[in-house]
Design goal:
Largest sheet: 8 strands, mixed
CATH architecture of the largest domain: 3-Layer(aba) Sandwich
Helix content: 25-40%
CATH topology of the largest domain: Rossmann fold
Strand content: 15-25%
Oligomer: single chain
Radius of gyration: 23 Å
Number of strands: 15
Number of helices: 14
Distance between the termini: 47 Å
CATH class of the largest domain: Alpha Beta
Shape: globular
Structural class: alpha/beta
Number of domains: 2
Length: 401
């Protein structure tokens, strides 16, 4: 199927064509016709599969036909500031041949510019729950004209403790509206939220039951905690010079690692919860523009971030949750491109591997794509990992690397 076969108006098809898209993704192909008909939707699809276009294109079409109003007609809730910005950018891009006004609001920055833009009139509002409630409490925003409502990353709203704010917002909305909820999982919490607040809805489930690993090479390195940094330095020195997203478990660990890499004269940016919004946006935009070689992040960056053609992920720390590993891995190998995922596992972290292997439904060792090489970093007396002293030794064959 082509985008031109979907029930979309010419201004939207022109915008899609301008971006170079010709074939809709499965979630877009399934959801767009249903949403265009005005039906409520509960959709499950993995991150990076085109969920934003699946709901933004029909919303743009509906609002373009209604004409502009002062108060927002569409409200999209997302759990993180980065995702809010990305959704806003998508609406601006897909609506470039319309006159629709789009605004993103979130915390971490002054609310004054946001209130000024709201006063001038907005058609589509993309927001984090906390800042949205702040603006409502300040009487800078009314929700009574909302005709289209979206919750993106609904499962993440629960994970991050936002669900009470989300529920409060949903209770403020008009009864007559079209509601769309998207989630990477359809667990009981998400289903209960949909049953209680959406009413009649159609379920669109295009999420793959198994993670596709054919285009992603995963390597697991058993390494002592103190030697992780030497392993990283060695891979940076001897490996390909490619952009790399590095995940750490803590904010302190991210900052500490960034300091070490900066001392190596590398171009590094950091994203975590203690960074201001301006710092986080500057880091992400700089990484996308190839101004930084490395982006170090906590799991705040594991979901929703769209970084095209990212070739390498390094899990400097093993994530505590298996689904966090899946979402980290989902930052690479997108749109059919290849990617590498390296995971550094200390002795203390080995118990965290079992649920990851179970989630992947892949064997511990695979000669194809799952785990092509399990290696153990051997301690050296003077220069760890120096090739002349033995380097890495494969657990499978005993060959020196």
């Amino acid at each position: 199927m082509l985008f031109s076969s979907l029930p979309l108006i010419q201004p939207i098809l022109r915008a899609v064509d301008k971006k170079g898209y010709t074939t809709p993704s499965p979630i877009q192909e399934a959801a767009i016709p249903i949403i265009v008909e005005g039906k409520n939707v509960l959709g499950r699809a993995e991150t990076g599969t085109g969920k934003t276009a699946a709901f933004s294109l029909p919303i743009i079409q509906h609002l373009n036909e209604l004409g502009n109003k002062r108060h927002p007609s569409a409200l999209i809730l997302a759990p993180t500031r980065e995702l809010v910005e990305q959704i806003k950018d998508s609406f601006l891009s897909y609506g470039s041949f319309t006159n629709l006004r789009v605004l993103a609001v979130y915390g971490g920055i002054s609310d004054r510019p946001q209130k000024q833009k709201l006063a001038k009139g907005v058609d589509i509002l993309v927001a984090t729950p906390g800042r949205l409630l702040d603006l409502i409490n300040q009487k800078s925003l009314m929700l009574k004209f909302i005709t289209h409502f979206v919750i993106d990353e609904a499962d993440r709203m629960f994970d991050m403790g936002f669900i009470l704010d989300v529920t409060k917002i949903m209770n403020m909305l008009p009864k007559e509206k079209q509601t769309m909820m998207f989630s990477a999982t359809l667990d009981r919490e998400v289903m209960n939220l949909a049953d209680e607040h959406i009413g009649d809805y159609e379920v669109i489930d295009v999420a793959k039951e198994k993670v596709e690993l054919n285009h992603i090479t995963q390597q697991l390195f058993y390494v002592s905690k103190r030697n992780k940094i030497q392993l990283l330095k060695d891979q940076i020195k001897n490996g390909p010079a490619v952009q790399t997203l590095i995940f750490t478990r803590t904010k302190h660990g991210a900052d500490q690692l960034a300091t070490i890499l900066l001392d190596m004269k590398l171009k590094v940016a950091v994203i975590h919860g203690n960074k201001s919004q301006q710092q986080r946006l500057r880091a992400l935009q700089g990484f996308k523009a190839n101004r930084f070689e490395f982006l170090i992040a906590t799991d705040v960056a594991a979901r929703g971030l769209d970084i095209p053609a990212l070739p390498r992920i390094i899990n400097y720390d093993v994530p505590e949750q298996a689904d966090a590993y899946i979402h980290r891995m989902g930052r690479t190998g997108r749109a059919g491109l290849t990617g590498d995922v390296y995971t550094y596992c200390s002795k203390e972290e080995r118990l965290l591997l079992k649920p990851i292997f179970k989630e992947l439904e892949a064997p511990l060792i695979s000669t194809s794509h799952a785990y092509e090489e399990i290696v153990e970093v051997k301690k050296q007396q003077s220069r760890p990992f120096a090739k002349k002293q033995g380097g890495y030794k494969s657990r499978l064959s005993g060959r020196k690397r």
